[in-house]
Amino acid sequence: MRPFVHLLIPLYLSLSNCSGQTPRLADANALGWFIYTGDHQIGLKWAIHAEYQWRRAGRHLEAPQQHLARLGLVRTLTDRLKVSGGYTYFQSHRYGEYPEVIGRPEPENRIYEDVALKDQLGRLELEQRVRLEQRWLGSRDQTGAGPVQTWEYQHRIRYQLAMAFPLQGAAIDNGEWYLNAFDELFIGFGKNVDDNVFNQNRLSGGLGYQFTDNAKLELNYLYQIRQHAYPDPVAKRSVVELNQGFRLTVVYNLDFTQVP
Fold first, then answer.
1. Residue 242 · residue 26 · CB < 8 Å
2. pLDDT per position in the chain (260 positions), as tens?
3. Is the distance from CB of 206 to CB of 178 less than 8 angstroms?
């Protein structure tokens, strides 16, 4: 994975600066993301999706980076196809050498819609997901203090390709290890996006363990390229984050249809 990342960085930076603009500032941060996610069955083809992400930054993960809470409804259409939608609350904190947040954390509200398609290629499990997001980004005053002053509306589309590969048999079964990886591209669109069309890309891969059909644990390496929406106020130059760290994910699904 490292060689691919090392090719991706100069390619992105060269594309970003090929128009003759002032070279971007690069901001490298260490990350640690702790995630819980689960689809909780409430009917034969319906489930409630619940998710929380606690994201930290800094060499010793001493700084809060972001918090994310997501709640949605999932509909299974076929064995391969699912659609879902719901609400996400997102909060950004001050971190890094060129922080976007000046003072108090800044909130964001989102509505999202998903389409997910699964395929099996031999032992390899593939999942493609397209997500649309309607975003309301909150901003405080120039000091970063006080209540949110304005909300800016934006659109974003995300495409993720994820895969899982069993290490102990033809399929991933209970009590077995597996490899997993994904890449996800974020593209902004609409009148309020300006120059921030490319929003970010996440590349991740690592090791997972399935305790039961409804319980998994994954530890992944994470590389994130993220472009700031606005230039740094001091340097007056655009900023791109080149972050790397880990993701620790707990997957735990409940089946409320089995409750007596």
1. yes
2. 444 444 455 445 544 444 445 688 999 999 999 999 999 999 999 999 999 999 999 999 999 999 999 999 999 999 999 999 999 999 999 999 999 998 899 999 999 999 999 999 999 999 999 999 999 999 998 888 889 999 999 999 999 999 999 999 999 999 999 999 999 999 999 887 766 689 999 999 999 999 999 999 999 999 999 999 888 888 889 999 999 999 999 999 999 998 66
3. no
Q: Which residue is it, tokens 């490899």? A: 179
Other beta carbons within 10 angstroms of residue 218's beta carbon come to 20
Residue 162, number of CB atoms within 10 A of its CB: 17
What angle is formed at CA 101 by the lines to CA 100 and CA 105, rounded to 5 degrees? 145
Contact between residue 135 and residue 153 where contact means Cβ atoms under 8 Å apart:
yes
Secondary structure class of 198 (helix, strand, coil): strand
Q: What is the pTM (predicted TM-score) of this model? A: 0.89
Give the whole-angstrom CA distance, residue 129 versus residue 210.
22
Domains and CATH numbers, the chain: 2-258 (2.40.160.40)
Q: Strand 124-139 relative to strand 150-166: parallel, antiparallel, unpaired? A: antiparallel
Structure tokens at 4: 């691919």
Round to whole Å and give the CA distance between 45 and 84: 11
Element (H, E) at 11: helix 2-17
